[in-house]
């Protein structure tokens, strides 16, 4: 069977106008030829610092932004070229959960109608009554029946995210893209929502692309993990290998960086030393070389390709031996 989600050489380039850029305009290679596949019932974590392109990758897969190049396959069907109408139908199978549930919920709709909305749009596909289905979804995500008539502002942040998850699950999608889906929640609530996602995956076989800057959360939820830096995947491996034996100098630096307190005091965040170079003007060769402790002359000249170093572990670094 084909993977549920198969992303091949996906790129997204944004043109920058002359007036903005100074001399002659330019381009931001936000996503630069990334490839990965996710199987049924699998969670792939996509991790990296702010601005690495991970959110743009998710948006390009969903066609919330048009990919510049590459292919996206869903259950063996290519979807990147579909027209708007066909893509709307595909959204039954590929759903999204963003960081801020409040902004993605209509404040004037009651919770029951928020969850029922996608069901009504695809009513012919729903055996049994919509009301029954909504009640079942509330139960699955741990919301109470007496909460069905509430409005979004009457829920806590964690409950609102449960509501968004219920809506995302309504049409039994094959894959859900979670973009910082728990990042705005308190740590204890994060754990509850993560456990909910894991249980729903066991029950339904849904696949997740779990996008986050938070290494600890990604380690907790993922089966495999891909690390992005300035638009490219630099390492991708099974979770245990990636966290236990990271091979790319960037992944090693991320994992060994000292945790510093988050300004909101919510949780410790790992912050790597040194500035991320501008995505408008990435270093030649290996984009990580300006922060890499192992950089050699070759690294400025030749861009390392992602290659298999054994055990389904892929690394893009000249110094890593297969
Ligand atoms: Fe560092 Fe060179 Fe490897 Fe890039 S290719 S991560 S600069 S050693
Ligand atoms: Mg983001």
TrEMBL record:
<dbReference type="InterPro" id="IPR050319">
    <property type="entry name" value="ABC_transp_ATP-bind"/>
</dbReference>
<dbReference type="InterPro" id="IPR027417">
    <property type="entry name" value="P-loop_NTPase"/>
</dbReference>
<dbReference type="InterPro" id="IPR017871">
    <property type="entry name" value="ABC_transporter-like_CS"/>
</dbReference>
<dbReference type="GO" id="GO:0055085">
    <property type="term" value="P:transmembrane transport"/>
</dbReference>
<dbReference type="Pfam" id="PF00005">
    <property type="entry name" value="ABC_tran"/>
</dbReference>
<dbReference type="InterPro" id="IPR003439">
    <property type="entry name" value="ABC_transporter-like_ATP-bd"/>
</dbReference>
<keyword id="KW-0067">ATP-binding</keyword>
<protein>
    <submittedName>
        <fullName>Peptide ABC transporter substrate-binding protein</fullName>
    </submittedName>
</protein>
<dbReference type="InterPro" id="IPR013563">
    <property type="entry name" value="Oligopep_ABC_C"/>
</dbReference>
<keyword id="KW-0547">Nucleotide-binding</keyword>
<comment type="similarity">
    <text>Belongs to the ABC transporter superfamily.</text>
</comment>
<dbReference type="GO" id="GO:0005524">
    <property type="term" value="F:ATP binding"/>
</dbReference>
<dbReference type="GO" id="GO:0015833">
    <property type="term" value="P:peptide transport"/>
</dbReference>
<dbReference type="GO" id="GO:0016887">
    <property type="term" value="F:ATP hydrolysis activity"/>
</dbReference>
<feature type="domain" description="ABC transporter">
    <location>
        <begin position="5"/>
        <end position="255"/>
    </location>
</feature>
<dbReference type="GO" id="GO:0005886">
    <property type="term" value="C:plasma membrane"/>
</dbReference>
<keyword id="KW-0813">Transport</keyword>
<dbReference type="Pfam" id="PF08352">
    <property type="entry name" value="oligo_HPY"/>
</dbReference>
<dbReference type="InterPro" id="IPR003593">
    <property type="entry name" value="AAA+_ATPase"/>
</dbReference>
């Amino acid at each position: 069977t084909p993977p549920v989600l198969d992303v091949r050489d996906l790129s997204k380039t944004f043109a920058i106008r002359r007036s903005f850029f100074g001399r002659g305009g330019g381009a931001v290679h936000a996503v630069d030829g990334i490839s990965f596949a996710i199987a049924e019932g699998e969670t792939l974590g996509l991790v990296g610092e702010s601005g690495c392109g991970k959110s743009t990758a998710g948006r390009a897969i969903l066609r919330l932004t048009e990919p510049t190049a590459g292919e996206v396959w869903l259950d063996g069907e290519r979807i990147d070229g579909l027209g708007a109408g066909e893509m709307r139908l595909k959204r039954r199978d590929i759903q999204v959960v963003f960081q801020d549930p409040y902004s993605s919920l209509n404040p004037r709709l009651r919770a029951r109608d928020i969850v029922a909305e996608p069901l009504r749009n695809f009513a012919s596909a729903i055996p049994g009554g919509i009301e029954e289905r909504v009640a079942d979804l509330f139960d699955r995500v741990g919301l109470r029946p007496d909460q069905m008539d509430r409005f979004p502002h009457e829920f806590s942040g964690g409950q609102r995210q449960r509501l968004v998850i219920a809506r995302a699950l309504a049409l039994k999608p094959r894959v859900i893209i979670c973009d910082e889906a728990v990042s705005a929640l308190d740590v204890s609530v994060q754990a509850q929502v993560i456990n909910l996602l894991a249980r729903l995956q066991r029950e339904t076989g849904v696949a997740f692309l779990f996008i986050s800057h938070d290494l600890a959360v990604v380690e907790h939820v993922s089966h495999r993990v891909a690390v992005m830096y300035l638009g490219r995947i630099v390492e991708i491996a099974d979770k245990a290998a990636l966290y236990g034996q990271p091979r790319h100098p960037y992944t090693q630096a991320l994992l060994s960086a000292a945790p510093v307190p988050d300004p909101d005091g919510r949780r410790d965040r790992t912050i790597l030393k040194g500035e991320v170079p501008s995505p408008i003007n990435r270093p030649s060769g290996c984009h990580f070389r300006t922060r890499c402790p192992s950089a050699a002359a070759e690294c400025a000249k030749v861009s390392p390709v992602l290659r298999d170093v054994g055990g389904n572990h892929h690394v893009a670094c000249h110094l890593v031996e297969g």
